[in-house]
Design goal:
The strands form 5 sheets. Strands 1, 9, 10, 11, 13 and 15 form a 6-stranded antiparallel sheet that branches. The protein has helices spanning about 105, 110-120, 125-135, 145-165, 180-195, 290-295; strands spanning about 30, 45-55, 55-60, 60, 65-75, 80-85, 100, 165-170, 205-210, 215-220, 220-230, 235-240, 240-245, 255, 260-265, 270-280, 285-290, 310-315, 315-330, 355, 360-365, 370-375, 380. By secondary structure, the chain is an alpha+beta fold. It has 2 domains: about 20-30 and about 205-280 and about 320-380; about 45-200 and about 280-315, no CATH class. The longest helix has 20 residues, at about 145-165. The two termini are about 45 Å apart. InterPro entries: LPXTG_anchor, Thioester_dom, TQXA_dom. Keywords: Cell wall, Membrane, Peptidoglycan-anchor, Secreted, Signal, Transmembrane, Transmembrane helix. This is TQXA domain-containing protein. Pfam families: Gram_pos_anchor, TED.
Length: about 375
């Protein structure tokens, strides 16, 4: 027997015998993180801690700046997320709440490079590990906080290099950095700016199911089906059936490219399979001050450009990309007798094929399962 699968983005499950009523079936795509409001915007308040004063400039013109350690505490949460400035010329407005915005609307350049810097900088890489992997040395007299300030300053300098075209001085880049801060900050900066790579954007994440057109019924099970995911491993659950691998062992999670088979529960006429890929939402989410006072330039901290300093999230946040595939069974028109042969796949033009209305598809006699892929929006925790 063969599974001929039709897909639709609708969530409707077609029950036993209802398939022939379909006039058309549209192909549905994979579950994707690129859905409207797939990630709930974050709002929060800015907190600051002392950092290092960096020496640098724009194309030879000196412009020194403090790399204070910045954090954002989301409303309703006690956790403080590490953020970086991506707007070096605009003072920070600490009196205004910040809300997540769109990178395209921020007017900030080089998202790909900045995302890579943050993904490979502090705190995604531990402070001491980052300094040492960059070829620097951690002064044994530094406290954990001082080590973090150095790693943060080197990462912030690299961010400014791409967002504002600002360069860190090679000679004494840290004002008063006589205890090893100079060399360590410069090493981190160079490490993060010399050859930036690429970190995927969440909109590129998908979860899909392959095999609908080729899976067959053999030895009491349907398959194989193949999981396709660029968002990591996919946890699977089934109702009305059990899922197993090639050896018949039960499965709970599969990586991209791995296969599974479906074994129906006794008496089952419908099967629902849910898959969830859990991933870290990559860094690179932009935050802007939100109140009218801040945006008008009348906040407690005077804003030279009439707008608030832009910030970018440094830490990944966990996200989930759910997908669902539903199957409904349509019994064969002519069932075999106890002594007769089992129905075979019809050849083209066989009388065993029943045309859908309008001739848009064919229903193959025999046990046929139709899977309906349902798109669902991703959620972030």
């Amino acid at each position: 027997m063969r599974l001929k699968t039709f897909r639709t983005p609708r969530s409707t499950v077609i029950g036993l015998g209802a398939a022939t009523a379909l006039a058309a079936v549209l192909a549905g795509g994979p579950a994707s993180a690129q859905e409207e409001d797939a990630v709930e915007p974050v709002t929060g308040d800015i907190v600051t801690a002392p950092g290092l004063e960096l020496r640098g400039g724009f194309d030879g013109d000196r412009y020194d700046v403090w790399a204070n350690v910045l954090g954002l505490t989301p409303h309703g949460s006690e956790e403080t997320l590490v953020v970086y400035c991506i707007d070096i010329m605009t003072p920070l407005d600490t009196e205004s709440p910040y809300a997540e915005g769109h990178w395209e609307e921020s007017g900030v350049a080089n998202l790909e490079q900045v995302r890579w810097v943050l993904f490979n900088g502090y705190p995604n890489v531990g402070a001491a590990d980052l300094i040492e992997s960059a070829g620097g040395e951690v002064n044994p007299d530094w406290s954990d906080q001082e080590t973090a300030e150095v790693a943060y300053a080197g990462t912030q300098a690299a961010v400014w290099h791409f967002t504002d075209d600002w360069d860190l001085l090679e000679d004494n880049p840290v004002k008063g950095g006589n205890d090893g801060e100079d060399e360590a900050v410069l090493k981190v900066y160079e490490h993060l700016t010399e050859e930036p790579g690429r970190v995927p954007d969440p909109s590129e994440f998908t979860v899909d199911l392959e095999g609908a057109d080729t899976a067959a019924y053999e030895d009491g099970r349907f398959g194989p089906y193949t999981i396709r995911s660029n968002a990591g491993a996919v946890a699977l659950e089934a109702e009305g059936a059990r899922l197993e691998d090639a050896d018949g062992d039960p499965i709970e999670s599969l990586e991209d490219g791995e296969e599974f088979w479906i074994v129906l529960d006794e008496g089952s006429e419908e099967v629902s399979i849910s898959g969830t890929a859990a991933y870290d939402l990559p860094v690179g989410r932009v935050f802007l001050a939100t109140n009218d006072e801040s945006l008008s330039g009348d906040a407690v901290n005077p804003l030279t450009a009439g707008e608030s300093q832009k910030l970018i999230l440094a830490q990944p946040r966990e996200g989930e990309l759910p997908a669902e595939w539903r199957f409904a069974l349509d019994a064969p028109t002519d069932r075999p007798t106890e002594s007769g042969p089992a129905p075979q796949l019809p050849t083209t033009g066989s009388s065993l094929s029943v045309a859908f209305a309008g001739g848009l598809a064919l229903l193959i006699a025999g046990l046929t399962a139709m899977a309906f892929a349902k798109r669902r929006k991703g959620s972030v925790h």
